Amino acid sequence: MKYKHFIDAHKGLTLFVVLGLIAYYAAWQDARAWLYLGIHGSYGILWLIKSNTFPDSQWEKPVPLWMGVITWLGLGLYWVGPWLIVTQRTALPPSWLLGGAVFIYGLGVLLHFASDMQKYMSLKLRPGVLLTDGLWSRLRSPNYLGELLIYLSFCMVVYHLWPLLILACFVFGYWIPNILKKDRSLSRYPEFAAWKARSWRLIPYVF
């Protein structure tokens, strides 16, 4: 099986898992649970659309079953957030924070999916040419920044330390090493030095 099959399975199940948690804990009147379902559930559906229309080549590789299962279980940690909400183990976040969560979720969706689409089309129409324009002109990983904003929005809705720690494990354990590895790989292009000088790896003015 391909890597994407395990990732897609998790993303696609999120809507049903969160809805199942709402049903199991009878949290039908919990507006925050429904908000979480709306943003995380829609993200899962958008991911499936992306995976089947402009897939990322790194997830198209076949992997051993054990690695796929470990990946799926690791991603399952993201379901801790909605469980914390429906079991009322978190305080209610201030209204402005919930509004901010929706705001950065929208920005994250744009960055993540639009930049992935741009990368897919660039690789298809301009193979061998380094992508340094559009959303990639000032950021070398706009897709990762978009995903970071999306998952931060989930953490803001949950309003608990655990989801932040889980996200930090993914960011520092996988995302950043992968970003650094990608930079080393792209450094073979002559134009990389100029692109690097005018852009940031992930977060503008920070990293």
If helices are DSSP runs of H or I spanning 4 or more residues, what is the number of helices?
A: 8
Measured on Cα atoms, how large is the radius of gyration? 18 Å
Structural class, by secondary structure, is mainly alpha
Strand content: under 5%
Query: Roughly how much helix do the residues carry, as a percent range?
Result: 55-70%
Largest sheet: none
Q: Which regions have little confidence, pLDDT < 50, spanning 5+ residues?
A: none
Count of the domains: 1
Which geometry do the CA atoms define?
globular
Number of strands: 0
N/C terminus separation: 35 Å
Order of helices and strands: HHHHHHHH
Report mean pLDDT, rounded to a whole number. Answer: 95
What are the main properties of this structure?
207 residues; mainly alpha; single chain
Protein architecture, described:
There is one protein chain. By secondary structure, the chain is an all-alpha fold. It has one domain (3-198). Helices cover 70% and strands 0% of the residues. It has eight helices and no strands. The protein has helices at 3-24, 31-53, 65-75, 80-86, 95-125, 142-158, 161-186, 192-198. The longest helix has 31 residues, at 95-125. The radius of gyration is 18 Å and the shape is globular. It starts with a helix and ends in a 9-residue tail after the last helix.
